[in-house]
Design goal:
Elements: E1 19-23, H1 28-36, E2 43-48, E3 59-60, H2 66-73, E4 78-81, H3 91-112, E5 116-122, H4 150-169, E6 172-178, H5 188-193, H6 197-209, E7 215-220, H7 232-236, H8 249-256
Parallel strand pairs: 1-2, 1-4, 2-3, 4-5, 5-6, 6-7
Helix pairs in contact: 1-6, 2-3, 3-4
The structure holds D-galactaro-1,5-lactone.
C-alpha cells in the first residue's frame, strides 16, 4: 500500500495506532507482516539494513546508526522490532546486531517519545527448558530464562531491557517469545510451536493495540492441538488464534516422524538450537 494513501480501518479499530515502524522489514517475518498487518489498520514504515523489495520508501539503515534510528522512529505510534540475527551466530555478531542494536533502538524510541515497542523475543530465551511430558500443564511465561544460544541470550537481554525502559522511562513493550512463524511446517516440533503468519499478524495487532501493557511477556504460537505454551497472557491482550497446525500433522509426521524427546535435539523447547553446534535445519 502506498504510504500516502489513507488506511481503511475496522470499526472497532479506530483507536489503533496508525504508523508502525517495522524493523527487519526484509526478513522472513517482516516480509509476511508487510502484507498481513495493513488490513488490521496500520500504515507500515519499513526499515532494514538492505533495501525492502517492493517498498521504495523503505528506510535503509543499520541498527548501529543512532542518528538514522532517531529519524526513523520519529512520529511512529509504535515499533515492531523484528530486526537482528535470527539464528545462532558468533557472540561478537550477536552483540552488535541484537544487543547493541536493540539498545540503540530503545534509546531512539525514548528520545523521540515513542509509546510502545513490540519486541520479537523468542522461545530460545527459554530454550533449555525441558520439553514437557504428556499431560503436563502448558508452560507459563514466568519460568526462568534458560537461553539455549547466544541468540537466545540476546532475547533475554531484550526482555530485560524492555523491563528497564518501562520501569524507568514508561516506555511500554510487549515481548513476544515467538515460536516458528513460517508458512510451512517442517518438523514435528513445529507442530507444537508454529505461529501461522495470519495468527502472527493477529498477535502483533493485539500487542500494538491493547491498552496499558507496561512490560508484558507472552508466548507466540497458534492454538495448536499440540501446543506446549500457555497462551493466556497473549489472549489477555486480545489475541484470538484462528489456526491449528494439526491440519498438517499427518503429512508432517509421515515426512519427518514423531517428536522423539529422547534425542538431544528434541529434548528441550529450543529443539536443535540446544545442541552445540546447533543441528540445522531443525
Ligand atoms: C527463532 O527464534 C528463529 O528466529 C526462527 O528462525 C526459528 O528457528 C524459530 O526460533 C524456531 O524455534 O523454530
Amino acid at each position: 500500500m502506498p504510504a500516502d494513501q489513507p488506511v481503511e480501518r475496522d470499526a472497532e479499530q479506530t483507536d489503533t495506532p496508525s504508523t508502525v515502524l517495522l524493523t527487519g522489514a526484509s526478513g522472513i517475518v517482516g516480509t509476511l507482516m508487510r502484507e498481513l498487518l495493513p488490513p488490521h489498520g496500520y500504515r507500515i514504515r519499513s526499515l532494514d539494513m538492505v533495501p525492502t523489495p517492493g517498498d521504495p520508501d523503505a528506510i535503509v539503515a543499520d541498527l548501529a546508526d543512532r542518528a538514522a534510528l532517531r529519524e526513523a522512529v520519529r512520529g511512529a505510534d509504535a515499533i515492531l522490532h523484528l530486526a537482528g540475527i535470527s539464528l545462532e551466530s558468533s557472540f561478537e555478531k550477536i552483540l552488535r546486531a541484537n544487543i547493541e542494536g536493540t539498545y540503540n533502538l530503545y534509546e531512539a524510541a525514548r528520545e523521540e517519545g515513542v509509546r510502545r515497542i513490540v519486541f520479537a523475543s523468542s522461545n530460545h530465551a527459554v530454550g533449555l527448558t525441558p520439553w514437557p511430558r504428556p499431560g503436563d500443564a502448558p508452560i507459563p511465561v514466568d519460568i526462568p530464562h534458560r537461553p539455549d544460544t547466544f541468540y537466545g541470550l540476546s532475547k533475554c537481554f531484550g526482555e530485560d531491557l524492555a523491563q528497564l525502559y518501562w520501569d524507568k522511562y514508561g516506555l511500554e513493550t510487549v515481548s513476544i517469545r515467538i515460536g516458528s512463524c513460517f508458512p510451512k511446517i517442517t518438523s514435528a516440533r513445529m507442530l507444537s510451536v508454529w505461529l501461522s503468519p495470519a495468527d502472527g499478524a493477529r498477535l502483533f495487532h493485539a500487542a500494538i493495540s491493547a491498552p496499558d501493557v507496561g512490560h508484558t511477556v507472552v508466548y507466540g504460537s497458534s492454538d495448536n492441538t499440540r501446543r506446549v505454551w500457555d497462551l493466556a497472557p497473549a489472549e489477555a491482550l486480545g489475541y484470538v488464534s484462528e489456526d491449528d497446525s494439526e491440519v498438517f500433522a499427518a503429512e508432517v509426521i509421515a515426512a519427518h516422524g514423531e517428536l522423539d524427546t529422547g534425542k538431544p535435539d528434541q529434548a528441550h523447547l529450543g529443539g536443535a538450537f540446544v545442541t552445540d553446534p546447533p543441528i540445522w535445519p531443525h
